[in-house]
Amino acid sequence: MVSLIESNYRVQELNSMRSNLAQYIESKAEVKDAKIGYVSIEEINHRVSSKILKSAAEITKGLFLNKLSSDLNPEVVIGVPNRGKEFATALGLETGLPIGISDRSEIKEGESREFRADYLEEDDMVVINGIPSFTQPGKFFTHKIRGLKPGSTVLVTDDFSATGSVTEYYIKAFEQLGITPIFVYLVAKDFNDSHPPQQGYRKNKEKGLPVFAVVRLTKIEDGHVKVTSEDITV
């Protein structure tokens, strides 16, 4: 049995790891367009760093997942396609959770863009139709998630939280199917001055939803982005 001293030491160790990770990400982040809050972090959204993924998974498990109430024990982890898949794999390895396979396809012209969520029992697959793209305005996608059943609790991962629109669509879909989601992000943008504002994580945190971001981007100054390991308190 882990003693209280050992537990407190582990929390301190994880908080230190989180702070160091925030500093490292800040050193690597490139501001592409400050006005719209476009920030590129190559080791997260291009050539993904296994070290960052491993650290982020440890931090998420120790500082968030281990503190969830017993009624929020996830049965499976999935990544929002396509950029959340790597984090989902890292968390699956860290927690021992099975990893649901997810992918997406663009809705072609003439096909229905109407939002709907279905469970295809024969394929053991959740299909969410009509999700608009934040990075590619005007495009809509269908997300397919294998191994996720109605009535289950799912850990949903993504690389970034920006406006929170994809999270909102997933919440809406899962409500229809009786699925309880928990959302975790490698990075959450917290930009009030961008156009549009990118504070989806803050909004969901203030709603009391079970959400967690390893680090936050808080503001852009003189062409550089500020990154913090401090979470939002509500």
What would you say about this model in short?
The chain has 234 residues and is an alpha/beta fold. The chain has helices at residues 4-28, 42-45, 50-63, 85-95, 165-177, 200-206; strands spanning 30-33, 38-40, 76-79, 99-100, 102-106, 116-120, 125-132, 140-146, 153-161, 180-189, 211-221, 224-228.
Category from helices, strands and their pairing = alpha/beta
Mean pLDDT: 95
Shape: globular
Please write the string of helix (H) and strand (E) elements: HEEHHEHEEEEEEHEHEE
Biggest sheet strand line-up = 4-3-9-10-11-12
Q: What is the overall number of helices?
A: 6
Rg, nearest Å: 18 Å
Strand residue percentage: 25-35%
Percentage of residues in helical conformation: 25-40%
Distance between the ends: 32 Å
Count all strands and give the number.
Answer: 12
The major pleated sheet works out as:
6 strands, mixed
Low-confidence stretches: none
Relevant terms:
234 residues; alpha/beta; six-stranded mixed beta sheet; four-stranded antiparallel beta sheet; 6 helices; globular
